[in-house]
Amino acid sequence: MKNLGLGVFIVLALAFVLLVAGCKDTPDAAPTAGQQDGMQTVELIDGVWLTDLDQAFALAKQEGKPVIADFYADSCGACQLLDDETLSDPKVKQVLEENFVPVKLDMAKQYELGRKYQVFGLPTLMVFDSESSEVGRIRGFVEAGPLLEILEQLLEQPTGQDAQGEPEAESQTEQPEEATQE
Predict the structure, then answer these.
(1) pLDDT tens, 100-109?
(2) Is the pTM of this model over 0.90?
(3) Residue 22: which region, alpha, beta or left (left: phi > 0; alpha: psi -120 to 50)?
């Protein structure tokens, strides 16, 4: 009887290891890396996302566009859902490509940025103006329709105000999370 229990445990442990290893090796689980104009990029669906926030800020300043930063992890189911259902939506892709400098930030590789910007859950989308000041934040999964509404609000607001039209705090990223407006 003891041998049967040990055998079941070993089979279950092996199945778990194979399942975890299979998830990490799935080709569609992670965006593919590449180069574009000397900048590190990650190709997502049909669009091109930068993978370096400083490069995104420089390009945003040059083009006068806001930055949208997608803080994610390959192991995050909601992050994958955001990629598959929301960021791949044709209308969302069009708005992002025409109006934003998009950057994807893998929290497994760029953990310090998550700490700097107080990203406590994934996925988190942060929007910065062309001068690198945070103007909006979306925590968790969001469907395409509501995301488009939020992005349109952010694009219409005057510089120096958050999505609700309130003056921005000196530095939202240094305030405790409960004081940060969403």
Answers:
(1) 999 999 999 9
(2) no
(3) alpha
Catalytic residue among 53, 59, 60, 76: 76
| Residue 66 backbone dihedrals phi, psi, to 5 degrees | -75, 160
Beta partners for residue 104, in sequence order: 70
Q: In this structure, what are the phi and psi dihedrals at residue 17, rounded to the nearest 5 degrees?
A: -60, -45
DSSP state of 167: B
Alpha-carbon distance of 117 to 134, in angstroms, equals 9
23 is an active site residue: no
Q: Which of 79, 87, 119, 138 is catalytic?
A: 79
Query: Do the Cβ atoms of 123 and 140 come closer than 8 Å?
Result: yes
Q: Alpha helix locations (H) across the chain?
A: 2-24, 53-63, 77-81, 90-99, 111-116, 144-156
For the question of residue 76 being annotated catalytic, the response is yes
Task: Identify the helix (H) or strand (E) that includes residue 102.
Answer: strand 101-106
> Among all chains, which residue has been given the structure tokens 């607001």?
157
For residue 115, what are the CA distances in angstroms to 37, 59, 159?
Answer: 29, 23, 25
DSSP 3-state of 79: helix
Name the 3-class secondary structure at 100.
coil
